[in-house]
Amino acid sequence: MLNPEVFILAIESSCDDTAAAVLCNDKVLSNVVANQLIHTQYGGVVPELASRAHQQNIVPVIDAALKKANIQKEQLSAIAFTQGPGLMGSLLVGSSFAKSTALALGIPLIAVNHMHAHILAHFIDEEGYDKPEFPFLALTISGGHTQIVKVNNFFDMQIIGETTDDAVGEAFDKSAKILGLPYPGGPLVDKYAQLGNPKAFPFTKPKVPRLDFSFSGLKTAILYFIQKEKQKNPNFIDENLNDICASIQHTIIQILMDKLKLAVQETGIKQIAIGGGVSANSGIRNTLKKAEEKYGWKTFVPKFEYTTDNAAMIGIVGYQKFLSQNFENASVVSKARIQF
Ligand code: KG4
Ligand code: ZN
Questions:
Q1: E strands along the chain, which residues?
Q2: Which residues form a coiled coil (predicted)?
Q3: CB 113 near ligand 1, within 6 Å
Q4: pLDDT digits (tens, 9 = 90+) for 5-39
Q5: Which ligand is nearest to the CA of 142?
Q6: Separation of 308 CA from ligand 2 center, angstroms?
Q7: Which domains does the chain have, with CATH numbers?
Q8: Of 90, 8, 82, which is closest to residue 48 (Cα–Cα)?
Q9: What is the pLDDT of residues 58-84, one digit of tens each?
Q10: How far apart are the CA of 330 and the centre of ligand 1, in A?
Q11: Cα 68 to averaged position of ligand 2 atoms, centre (Å)
């Protein structure tokens, strides 16, 4: 028998993007994101402002997602929302809206772990996109997370490595800030790096045991290096921006690749799926492509709109939970930190 059509409205509001999506089974009908530009002037996300902007954005964003999908709310089968991890004031806006709408429509409510969603985004049905097979390794890299996860099936995942301090996106953004670039600086470092020499300025890689990461030492090394060079030549950054960015990016990629190689060696798993905003980085994408030939890996990089924070990824987890009837009642609580 064919599966009946399941329509999920998904809401994501864990940090500074207000997002809503509508899925029909594992296909995305609409995926709407409102970015909050207000944070740029502060050089980072301001939690109170994020929460207020979510309150302003959530109704128009959900409305746009339903209209784009051409779905009436009465047709919805369930509502999925991000339970955590994230900023509490931001999470509460999404969860309150999801709870009240599910109650009003008399349909199930589904709580989703944001980190599971980054990983399971690979199971969104897209033409021409191969899905990984279980078990696979997921490298989740964003402004808030850096993890290597062994994914055994949809709901059995194990973190085998993670950052002990800054996330890799923070390493990009904080390095960019030292160079005087605006927030978020990751995409700009990527842009200038493409024009520079990655071996121009060698930065020492941190020594962290096993599969864990550390990026705070690299940030400090870059800061001291720039301060020293600027004393000799006040125009050092302007004159060497491309080479500095290429060298920083090269070091970060080496750190990630060293740990991935170790993870493959320890687990014997050669399928690598990446997710999170930093997976947009051109250097990381190229290096992973080359690793397919070099090490016999099979790598999976989702469409850009499914790698940064979005609600379609919440919807695909919602769909899997719907199939296993894994529902919540209105007493479910948001969690800034959440057990994997
Ligand atoms: O997943 P995301 O949109 O939000 C969360 O942090 O959860 O990731 C945002 C992060 C920022 O740190 C941003 O600088 C980084 O992803 N980023 C990049 C690139 N595009 C986005 N970092 C390096 N290269 C890029 N092309
Ligand atoms: Zn995220």
A1: 7-12, 17-24, 27-35, 78-84, 109-113, 136-141, 146-153, 156-162, 271-275, 298-300
A2: none
A3: no
A4: 999 999 999 988 899 999 999 999 999 988 877 77
A5: 1
A6: 6
A7: 7-122+307-323 (3.30.420.40), 132-301 (3.30.420.40)
A8: 90
A9: 999 999 999 999 999 999 999 999 999
A10: 33
A11: 24
